[in-house]
Amino acid sequence: MIDMYMKCGRIKDACQVFDTMPERDVCSWTTVLTGYAKGGCMEDARCLFDKMHERSIVSWNAMIAAYARCGDHVEAMDLYCQMQWIGTKPDEFTLASVVSACASMMDLGYGSGIHGQVVKFGFESNVFVGTALVDMYAKCGRVDVARQMFDLMPVRNIVSWTAMVAGYAQNGQAEQATRFFSQIHQEGMKPNELTFVSVVNACAILMDLRFGRQVHAYIIRSGFQSQVSVCNAIVTMYAKTQTIEDALYVFDKMQDRDLISWNAIIAGYAHNGHYQEALKLSFQMKQIGVKLNQFSYASILSVSSSLPAFEEGKQLHGHIIQTGFDSNVFVGSALVDMYAKSGSLQYARQVLDKMPEQDVISCNAMIAGYVQHGYSEEALKLFCQMQHTGLKPDEATFASIVCACANLAVLEHGRHIHAHIFCMGFESPMSVVNALVTMYAKCGGIEDARKVFKKMIEHDVVSWNAMIVGHAQHGDGVETLRLFEQMLLTGIRPDAITFLGVLSACSHTGLVDRGHYYFHSMRHEHNITPRMDHHACMVDLLGRAGRLDEAEDFINKMPFEPDASIWVGLLSACRVHGNIEIGKRVAQLLFDLEPQNTSAYVLLSNIYSAAGRWDDAAKVRKMMKDRDVKKKPGFSWIEVKNRVHAFMSEDRSHPQIEEIHAMLNTLAGSMEEAGYVPNTNFVLHDMEDEHKEHVLYHHSEKLAIAFGLMSTPPGAPIRIIKNLRVCGDCHNAVKFISKIVGREIVVRDVIRFHHFTNRTCSCQDYW
Question: Which of 137, 292, 436, 548 has the CA that lies 20 to 30 A from 627?
């Protein structure tokens, strides 16, 4: 009677019969215990188990298996230890349950110990125990040992085969998973639900749509097309292989959908760039009463971060707070990411600071947001806070923080980060190494960039671009083009960024014909449509070479309307070559196109000033004042002992300004003895020559260099950054200084790098 009631799920009736029994044997106790355990009534089951005076192996197995099923693996292991302590010998079911518990905990050490007991008790040939061992080793990342166990099994069932298919898929060997699945068919076995889920997941990892479609057809023939877990896997597979229409078709045909189904289709739309559709589905999901979980919120928030949907994101944030998911670290990280990507860094930081527990993912989202939106200093501060709180940075952290160092041009700080990367063993991930190459190149350490690049085991297009663009910025056109040709020989296809570096290199070295060739090869040889910035490079190339009429004609023949950057490039060339006629015409176009563009006014004023037309220059400056156009102040900065020191022209704010001026006076005497003559044509104001010379000597780059000479060891390179183009007089002066002090001086201005040594510059005065 007890057994019948329990099998019918009538636990109360079974207990009433059990309670009225005058005598109970171990069999009746175990029957009730098993009923409680299978029904999930763990407290009642444990209470009954503890009251049993005599326990059979079946009693122990019922409790151990029940704890393993409900996820309380520690308790399952504890019971197993108690069982051994009192001398009860385990059977195949005991061992299978305990091994499964080790698999769920991914405890390889304990699992290996249980494996030894399996051999000791002679169950290594049992199909249930053998399958459990295969599954345990696979889930613990030892798929090689799992395969050895599988090959040693004298008898295998579909569960054994499925454990191997799932193990390969979970351990990044998806191709092996599909091969194993094909062998199942050859062995004449029928796959089960989990087999199909595992092989479909493998197809998604491999992006193998052809095999995925074949498996889908096999699923339909086998009658598993209505299984929710199988359909969820198929939806995910089609979404990841960029056939979202097929994913939606399967989703719409599903008779039953669970939360995973909705999460899969929303994530699928987001993955394929259909953000509006994903957002609509998320609203539909809420309308029909599907309760969202952490994965649902994360998928929807990722959609909101990819759309101009800031208000929708804020509304969702409110819903998250109402449902109590704001304390979930997974959801919190997604919120930080959404706000950071939308540029709402203040909201992102508030969410991060309010999280009860921050993890590396949430901090990474905030750091990436800071870097992306130009707050690299804040990114470095947060990185330091992470270290103080004990959070270990990962690959994504280092990739972002190295980019922050590149943006700030803080070479010494970047080197410290590189040392940290080396100590933590992150020198292999491509994203980190590419960021390091870019950082060294942007900070003036092109030799360090070369060293990192050469040590890389393999290169992708980003690696090559970092080197090509880096050498172009340093004015080494010959090396830039050599790298480009070498890249083509390796079979790496260039992209739009590659050609920006190539065209820039041609521009900085005066290779006009080569520049024309590479520009036309973009479309005809590499199937890349030139963008606005590629056309800007061509205008710069022609302008620097003094071919201003040709540059203007090139602009007029562009396939789209030129933007301000194009015209500024031509106007800048007019400034260099003193072409007033074209300069006036181009400036007027810029005044009409972007009335608040400072460059147009400043460049035209400088053109007039250089020609001695002071009245016309004054009119332009008055126009700026009347239109409330603010000139961007020029400043230079230098990093010394991990601290950045900034200077403006004729700046007196630095605490060591008197010593800096003394250093400049000493340099001035040595420079004049060496033949340096200040070029007062670069003082674009109407004043006495003596005052012009004073202004020239106190330009921001000279102040920064003087401070660097005072603050660094003799012979050490000096590296400074300027936010504008270095002036012609400073360029000449730094050549003299480099010879006098016997040091390399690297100046990075808004256009390129200049490496000064022994009274020469790497640009060869073509800049």
Answer: 548
Query: Rounded to an integer, what distance in angstroms lies between the CA atom of residue 513 and that of residue 519?
Result: 10
Residue with token string 């056109």 = 477
Maximal C-alpha separation, the chain: 121
The model's pTM: 0.74
What is the 8-class DSSP label of residue 753?
A: E
DSSP one-letter code for 695: H
The candidate with the shortest Cα–Cα distance to 317, out of 307, 328, 306, is: 328
Other residues' Cβ atoms within 10 Å of the Cβ of residue 20 = 7
Q: How confident is the model over 598-632, as pLDDT tens digits?
A: 989 989 988 998 888 989 988 998 998 899 988 77
CB atoms within 10 A of CB 301: 25
Contacts for 740 with CB less than 8 Å, ≥ 6 apart:
667, 670, 671, 674
For residue 678, the SS3 value is: coil
In a 13 Å sphere around the CA of 404, the CA atoms on its Cβ side amount to: 27
Bridge partners (DSSP) of residue 640 are: 643
Q: Are 367 and 379 in contact (CB under 8 A)?
A: yes
Cβ 285 vs Cβ 291: under 8 Å: no
Determine the Cα–Cα distance for residues 218 and 244; give it in Å rounded to an integer.
Answer: 20
- For tokens 């201005």, the residue is 749
State how far the alpha carbon of 103 is from the alpha carbons of 120, 146, 150, 210, 735, in Å.
20, 12, 16, 33, 68
List the alpha helices (DSSP H) in 510-655: 512-526, 532-544, 548-556, 564-577, 580-593, 598-610, 614-626
Q: Could you give the 3-state DSSP secondary structure of residue 53?
A: coil
